[in-house]
Amino acid sequence: MKTPMKTHHRLLLTGAAGGLGSALRDRLKVNCETLRLSDKSSFGEAQAGEEIVLADLANAAEVDTMVAGVDAIVHLGGISVEAAFEPILQANILGVYNLYEAARKHGVKRVVFASSNHVTGFYKQSETIHADHPPRPDGLYGVSKAFGEDLSRFYFDRYGIETACVRIGSSFPEPKDRRMLATWLSFDDLHRLVSACLSTPVLGHSIVFGMSNNAVTWWDNSRARHVGYVPQDSSDVFREAVYARTSAPDLNDPAAVYQGGAFVKAGPF
Amino acid sequence: MKTPMKTHHRLLLTGAAGGLGSALRDRLKVNCETLRLSDKSSFGEAQAGEEIVLADLANAAEVDTMVAGVDAIVHLGGISVEAAFEPILQANILGVYNLYEAARKHGVKRVVFASSNHVTGFYKQSETIHADHPPRPDGLYGVSKAFGEDLSRFYFDRYGIETACVRIGSSFPEPKDRRMLATWLSFDDLHRLVSACLSTPVLGHSIVFGMSNNAVTWWDNSRARHVGYVPQDSSDVFREAVYARTSAPDLNDPAAVYQGGAFVKAGPF
Amino acid sequence: MKTPMKTHHRLLLTGAAGGLGSALRDRLKVNCETLRLSDKSSFGEAQAGEEIVLADLANAAEVDTMVAGVDAIVHLGGISVEAAFEPILQANILGVYNLYEAARKHGVKRVVFASSNHVTGFYKQSETIHADHPPRPDGLYGVSKAFGEDLSRFYFDRYGIETACVRIGSSFPEPKDRRMLATWLSFDDLHRLVSACLSTPVLGHSIVFGMSNNAVTWWDNSRARHVGYVPQDSSDVFREAVYARTSAPDLNDPAAVYQGGAFVKAGPF
Amino acid sequence: MKTPMKTHHRLLLTGAAGGLGSALRDRLKVNCETLRLSDKSSFGEAQAGEEIVLADLANAAEVDTMVAGVDAIVHLGGISVEAAFEPILQANILGVYNLYEAARKHGVKRVVFASSNHVTGFYKQSETIHADHPPRPDGLYGVSKAFGEDLSRFYFDRYGIETACVRIGSSFPEPKDRRMLATWLSFDDLHRLVSACLSTPVLGHSIVFGMSNNAVTWWDNSRARHVGYVPQDSSDVFREAVYARTSAPDLNDPAAVYQGGAFVKAGPF
Amino acid sequence: MKTPMKTHHRLLLTGAAGGLGSALRDRLKVNCETLRLSDKSSFGEAQAGEEIVLADLANAAEVDTMVAGVDAIVHLGGISVEAAFEPILQANILGVYNLYEAARKHGVKRVVFASSNHVTGFYKQSETIHADHPPRPDGLYGVSKAFGEDLSRFYFDRYGIETACVRIGSSFPEPKDRRMLATWLSFDDLHRLVSACLSTPVLGHSIVFGMSNNAVTWWDNSRARHVGYVPQDSSDVFREAVYARTSAPDLNDPAAVYQGGAFVKAGPF
Amino acid sequence: MKTPMKTHHRLLLTGAAGGLGSALRDRLKVNCETLRLSDKSSFGEAQAGEEIVLADLANAAEVDTMVAGVDAIVHLGGISVEAAFEPILQANILGVYNLYEAARKHGVKRVVFASSNHVTGFYKQSETIHADHPPRPDGLYGVSKAFGEDLSRFYFDRYGIETACVRIGSSFPEPKDRRMLATWLSFDDLHRLVSACLSTPVLGHSIVFGMSNNAVTWWDNSRARHVGYVPQDSSDVFREAVYARTSAPDLNDPAAVYQGGAFVKAGPF
């Protein structure tokens, strides 16, 4: 897949102040004429080709304003780690409902929803799963992402809003540990994947695992080929360094057995 | 399957004042020594072998009190029709979280969770589905039931609390229309199914479709045979009467095409 | 399933002069007010509740007349044994096209199409197959029935005409040999199956294997439960007699190895 | 399925002195003219319609003599519990090889091989499995039975010897504990199953789970319908009594979690 | 895969005067010593290494002459667009029967049959399908290609004639619209695919989707790896240009929803 | 995948004197500090970084000594061709039991077990299979390898010893015939595969087909992606030469029809 095209006039990026949001902020400008950035709190000035609309996801009116006038949405906003249920309920459950209601009212027809590998974190690291394996969330965060996937399915079946649920693995500058050799998604591949979801002619409602072209992997994207994602990076170049600075996994530790890693032991809060 | 046994000392039935709650109230007494009944608002006096603990599912403290001291839970409580998101959020999302947290704290190890066929209501009436087909909820209510299924999966994988998610079809005294010839679940079969879920030696986390032994059906329970549910009733005896008083479905109407029936056209609220 | 209801005003039965046609002629009167009978050549007088419209299936105009005014069609007409290609082409390929074109023009919305187990006759007798196994026809006749299944799929996807493709096993007064212990379909069960296809609320495009409730079987109808067919007869009562008068199959004979039996050795003509 | 027929002239039953052997000894006489009984050591006199040929399964010459002249074999012989590897190697591995070599040399074309549910004992009691799930043996005994299944598959593919691998559950006069409510196979159903395997027109190489018509079950025989086994008994009549004298399973005990029950904790020897 | 080898002495290419026929005419010379070209009407002179045998596919005698003496057949002949049934019946149904009968009589053992993506045109563009998904033809043309697939299956199971059914996507110099970004098959990849089918040691009866290595695709060839097709081209280099000159698909248009594109709306004729 | 790392202190290679053993002897030194070599009979001197411990696999005491002190095992030892049952019983059945018992006693936690494509040799060359297809061994050797796979599954489920069962295709300097174009595994890819199995963070119990990146293949490794094997070689460069010196397969020869090639006709011994 070549350089993405300016397929959208005005594109909304939520969670723009976070780690992935920052990584996508520059990269997504090539996909649109105007990139609308949003987050809960102020995070600086809009630059050329940008505009900023702050919004609390739990506030339906603010979300409505945030969504008005955009062509498509890349929704990274909300909580992205295991946490107590109340903030997850507000940001990831009520928040995603508010987002889809706003999309429905304003006629936005395509959403890239940042789901998570923690929707299926209780599968084993020696299993290969695909998009139709039933959810096995590894925490309240994972459950909330499964909720978003189900809600977006409803908005597709009922209202025709296309969504790609991207089950992001571990998107960091480089893999931090042996587990991330399997789950790593480079920032550039993240952008390639989001671009593919935004521009493929027909998206439907699709679940895609977000990982780079790593040799070791647990996820099978063969049911999402219509998205057209072709990763270009690989964790393999970091492999030797990661092995050198980490020790072998202890198979008596659930964090080594299950795909969710340490998330399967987090909380309760 | 014979008459159920008193497999539990104290059994909690939530939503006891509703239609299904009333149907189960008498029938479940044979399964336990004490049947604790709960609903949001006062619904009369406890009878012999009963006790009543009122609770608002959205109130964690009240739910905690409701759950304390029981051996197992039959959770019918919450909203059971398509509705606006706010009450669904309170009763079916926060409510079910409160219930599982209380179960975890009090060591309750088995739950029968009233899920719904509306979790998969956007499959077609000419499709046969089983428990592992991905959710296709037909409304916010269906999405909230999918949430309960996912949350209970997490509480099983993490904390070992067994749950049967019973995707109830149409549980009424008799089938009201042609669609219910497929989805009908007699009250006695409902009780048989709940009894099986309560008493099977090992339940794990299971999804079971709740229908009687109807000739026409859309659901395949062959992956839940360990539950031991054997329906004894059938909608077939009502078939001729239903046909006589209803007209043929119009296949241009989504309510005739999809399994969810009229739910696929409900709302938005 | 109880006695069928008069679900149709005018029902067309093609191939009415053949073996199965005769078996259905009396039985189908309970399903309709008027039973229109058709075959290629004259076969006697219409009786009470009947009307006769002769037609050569390869003649579009005659087929059009035959179809005009009916509510639904049970299509047994055409060639039902292995034969040379030319008559098969006329009766089973051009003929079924003419039938569906007439149905489309006249707004007939439901067809029961007599397909055949010979669509999948090259599966082995030790294999269990269901409706989605790819065709493995055992002759030109089987290929022509596969054509009818595919054509009717197109008329459903494009024009909404519902069809049940009934892959009839061996429908005779009783099973003649050991193979028919698996494939036998009693006349009464044939009628039950056709009635179910005619009256189930939503049929879609369905493939159903037509066999009685035989202990030995090769076919799995679990993907056609929405049809509501519940067989009541069984070849088992004939088992001992069949064994007594037949010898054990020779597994070096393809007719014993494959489901199609002697058809797999028929022809070429 | 009705009373079995005398489908064989001379039928060999190995392991005739054991528990299941004794149960089948009387019952199998209706299937043949002469029932040849075999075991390792002397176990009494032949009765009318019987003959006795003792053989050590590990002794090829004795096995050859045992097999010579029979039409079909029901092979219960060998070790049927977890044990040290050496005796298993002799009786269940070398022994079954000797048996098939003798069958090949003497032209015996059908074998009913007593396999075991312990071939798949490491699946969970909340899983439903069918014949094509990969083996997960729960001990050396289970591994040896998987060996017999694989060996017989080879003798079918290469030499055309048909085998039914019957994965026997728990065949006792009645279920002893809660696990056996799922795994129980009555002696009469055992006989029905063996009779079906012996007499079905085409057996091929088939894997069949041997259980009665129990409400709770973990096994799906839908891929072996060509065998024609229809169980008539059920553990359900014993259910209440079993519950009364046993306590609820402890899900921290592997014997309660896995299908193999206590076998998963047996040995090493 | 390297340059193809001259694996055949005399190779027949039907439909040689058409678009794909012309593309293959030069390229296939490297696969054989003599390339026999055929079409219905005269289309010029044979060149070095070529011979021409004209034939009307509906004429059995002409087809017989056309086939006599060749080692293998690449069958592009017949109608390749949606059309009225009569010409499709002659060219694609009677024609393909004539071809296989001639192959059977003359001992030709391998055929590459140009099937079409329109055999499965009523799957959605957001679905990934493989060779065993049931046919969902999008027109009479697609139905006729399904007929050819089924007929060739019969000739393989009965007579051992190997066939590759190549479901060609869109084989043009370059993709014309957004749909063709998924379906495009370059002429060189078409040749690679036909060469692989002609030369792989064992072909059996195989269904292969004919597309280049496009990023966006709907088809999964993983069940045809024994064919050894490795595409080298990709529609991706045309992507930006295609987007620039076309507008976004309207999901209310069946041509945008279904894989068959505009074919799903063609006719009736 | 880059150059392997010294992931192990002391690594045991059995069957070190054989063809594959010799190929791995040099290559595996980069994976460990000390490479312990073993075979049944003396095969020369240990070189730098090596040590030699001879052992007869059928001798438990010798195997125990062989295994003591190693971190991981690459088990190529035993018989690797079709042979009489007695030596297979000793080396491949008793031998692999002895190996796993020694591993259990000495706490060795990872084994790479040289299984074989002959475990599934009776699948057809036109079928694509994956790890979960049931075994169809093509001889006693194949049955013994299936035994090793099942035994290692038990040692994983019961004792947590991870094993990769590598179903080696044809590992030679180059492919010898047309069948090997599909089955060929270069020595370097063999080493890459073994290295991946030794070093992947979590191996579990995995079945992997051992072939290079050949265009024609019959095996699908998509369920073993967690192993991280990425082949770099291909039989394709040898294709033309192989075709030039061999003739086309005769499909009447079982060796051409089945994946096992000539093995399906070997023996009996």
From TrEMBL, chains A, B, C, D, E, F:
Signal peptide from the UniProt entry: none
Transmembrane feature ranges: none
The enzyme's E.C. designation: 1.1.1.203
Key word Signal present: no
Keyword check for Oxidoreductase: yes
Family, per entry: Belongs to the NAD(P)-dependent epimerase/dehydratase family.
Name used for this protein in its record: Uronate dehydrogenase
